[in-house]
Design goal:
Keywords: FAD, Flavoprotein, Membrane, Oxidoreductase, Transmembrane, Transmembrane helix. Belongs to the FAD-dependent oxidoreductase family. Pfam families: Pyr_redox_2. By secondary structure, this protein is of the alpha/beta class. It folds into two domains: 190 residues, FAD/NAD(P)-binding domain; 105 residues, FAD/NAD(P)-binding domain (3-Layer(bba) Sandwich), CATH 3.50.50.60. The chain is built from nine helices and 22 strands. The strands form seven sheets. The chain has a five-stranded parallel β-sheet, covered by helices on one side. A four-stranded parallel β-sheet has the order 13-12-11-17. The longest helix is centred in the C-terminal third of the chain and has 19 residues.
């Protein structure tokens, strides 16, 4: 019996667990143990709209993880609500901490799928436990509702979508300022995408401050935040939302296997470089960018590769995605996409993203939609 431990209960971890169990077959001598600090699967792809009060309920954004795996017998699958604290790659042991105490798991194969977290306090990703993430969402919605001025910083997809969602709802009643350090938004996309997004945000009354950085942010006694900008300007706002960058959830893993930013370094088979029988996928991995599409591709590859390894066969190397795919929605009526140098029209993006893919959540959680 091979013990496969998967750390992380978001999309990458959940989908990989289902895929391995399906592809290995009922008679394969393996057991998967999925470890996550969250009792529920959080659909973070809808997080930006979820910051707007009254738009998406907790019931729609959070679903019990255990329910998605109830079809598997206990000798094939186990779900443990706990946080990984350390990994000993030589002894093949994982130290975990749960509400009932600390314990150690032995593994034959280990998959790191612990994701990443947002650098600010907005719950774009999970914030600790499920209850902590729900509480953070409620708190943020309350602050959004009472704020008269909102500043978003960071010129990537998350920042653009957050500015769009807030401006669509409040553009005529709140001052919404969007700060980006580059000369244009979404600088890695084709110029047509950047131009369209900027014009769409301005149509929603978003005030853009380009070629500008937030050098520091200081909370004030009255609950506001004072921002010092690279231009020398000081800006006081009721709500500050930084959206630049993610921090990988990798503190439990030995630092010699991480890059300078804390991401896990992998080889062409998605195995953690310098280890045996340890793989990393999704946002915690240094391979590809942090988004659903690469995480899905890595999960599908790894499940197939691991089943081959279990059967004594050698998998082919992982093929990196050749062109970055971006789909962005500005508010609820506009959007644009890019695949390499190709752009996708607004009507297509709005139609595809009309439910923010929440209709796929149940099928991913129980494995039927994979």
């Amino acid at each position: 019996m091979k013990n496969i431990v998967i750390l992380g209960g978001s999309f990458a971890g959940i989908s990989t667990a289902h895929r391995i169990l399906k592809q290995a077959g009922k008679s394969a001598p393996l057991k998967i143990t999925l470890v996550s600090p969250n009792t529920h699967f959080y659909w973070s792809m809808a997080a930006a709209r979820g910051l707007v009060p009254g738009q998406i309920s907790d019931e729609d954004l959070f679903r019990p993880t255990a329910e998605g795996f109830k079809q598997y017998p206990a000798n094939r699958f186990e779900f443990i609500v706990a946080s990984a604290e350390r990994v000993d790659v030589e002894a093949k042991k994982v130290g975990i901490s749960s509400p009932t105490g600390k314990s150690t798991l032995d593994y034959d194969f280990l998959i790191l799928a612990t994701g990443a977290r947002a650098k600010g306090d907005a719950p774009f990703k999970g914030v600790g436990s499920t209850e902590e993430t729900k509480a953070a969402r409620r708190d943020f919605q309350s602050r959004v509702k009472t704020a008269k001025t909102i500043v978003i910083a960071g010129g990537g997809v998350t920042g653009c979508e957050t500015a769009g969602e807030l401006a669509y709802e409040y553009g005529h009643e709140k001052e919404i300022i969007f700060i980006a350090s580059d000369t244009k938004l979404l600088s890695s996309t084709p110029a047509t995408v950047s131009t369209y997004v900027q014009a769409s945000l301005q149509d929603l009354k978003v005030h853009l401050k380009l070629s500008t950085k937030v050098k520091s942010s200081n909370p004030l006694p009255n609950g506001q935040t004072e921002l010092l900008l690279s231009t020398g300007e000081k800006l006081v706002t009721d709500l500050y939302i930084p959206t630049f960058g993610l921090t990988p959830n990798s503190s439990y893993f030995p630092s010699e296997f991480l890059d300078a930013n804390g991401y896990v370094v992998v080889d062409s088979y998605l195995k953690v470089l310098g280890t045996n029988d340890v793989w990393a996928i999704g946002d915690v991995s240094a391979c590809e960018w942090s988004q659903f599409i690469p995480a899905d591709k890595q999960s599908a590859y790894l499940a197939k590769a691991l089943v081959l390894v279990l059967n004594g066969k050698t998998p082919s190397p992982y093929k990196l995605i050749s062109h970055r795919i971006t789909g962005i929605q500005i508010g609820r009526k506009k959007g644009i996409g890019a695949f390499g140098t190709w752009t996708m029209p607004s009507f297509l993006i709005v139609y595809v993203r009309r439910m923010l893919f929440m209709d796929r959540m149940a099928g991913i959680l129980d494995g039927k939609g994979l």
